Amino acid sequence: MNSIPDIKKSTEAKMDQSIQAFKNNLTKIRTGRANPALLDTVQVDYYGSMVPISQVANVSLIDARTIGVQPWEKGMGAKIEKAIRESDLGLNPASMGDLIRVPMPPMSEERRKEMTKLVRQEGEGAKIAIRNLRRDANEHVKKLVKDKQASEDDQKRAEADVQKVTDRHIAEIDQLVHAKEQEILAV
Q1: Which domain holds residue 178?
Q2: Judgement on whether residues 145 and 172 belong to the same structural domain of the protein
Q3: What is the reported pTM?
Q4: φ, ψ (nearest 5 deg) of residue 35
Q5: Which residues neighbour 148 within 8 Å (Cβ) at sequence distance 6 or greater?
Q6: Least packed by Cβ within 10 Å: which of 92, 106, 124, 161?
Q7: H helices of the chain, where?
Q8: 91 and 70 in one domain?
């Protein structure tokens, strides 16, 4: 990091990555609706190695509350079904010939509250990551000032710019949290 523009650019890129990671985490949080990404974390035994379901089957939506899993090979169906049942997602798959149907169970009020709490925690974690990036950027700028590579005016401007980027990312996280909560609470 040898210039203020470099620091700003790298900080913004890292903040964007944090938002992306947060979005990925949100897709794993269950709502009442079916979402093929829900099964991304489920691993299945494929000839001795554990692989994601998406590498041994087509995962698609049958309707708003049902995911369909179509294995590419005969004999994988039972393994996929077992992997989904044993995952911590609380799903109960059912085979219909070659197709495995994974219905989304309706969520109880209590479960919805738990999920919104989880969404808020994830959001808080993402905000902490963003704030840490802001702190790191400001420390880099202070070091440049200390090493006489930038003036104190540059430092103030850079810190204001970094704060603007931080505020924008935090607002985006709040918006994502709000949208996910609405999705969870919609019956």
Answers
A1: 4-28+108-185
A2: yes
A3: 0.68
A4: -150, 120
A5: none
A6: 106
A7: 4-28, 76-86, 109-146, 152-185
A8: yes
